[in-house]
Amino acid sequence: MLACRAADLDAVKSEPDLEKRSDRALDLADKSLSASRDLYSAGDYKKALAGLEDMRQSVDLARDSLVESHKSPSKSKYFKRAELRLRGLARRLEEFARDCALDDRPAVEALVAHVNQVHDDLLSGILEKKK
Description:
By secondary structure, the chain is mostly helical. The protein has one domain. Helix 1 packs parallel to helix 3, helix 2 packs antiparallel against helix 3 and helix 2 packs parallel to helix 4.
């Protein structure tokens, strides 16, 4: 399953359109979170936490792709889409953290903080006024 996710991430990285790459990376992050929750519910804790690392890579790829596009965040619909989707992912991650055992929460909470930071960075770019 982890090899499949790595192949999916490579497929997303091969997308030539940076804005669409961002969308696809967030799709992959969403799928990784769902798979991690399912694995955790099934009792496969190590694979579930490894899936969260895949999600972190997907979120980073989405952010990096948008930054590399050199488009104005306040004028690009892809920045706003990414901001909305990251907010939703952060909420789902927070729910997942509440469902996790106390020993597993720090890894999930660290990812929540990372996703929130990426979200805040995108949001500040969208709301920033041009000088």
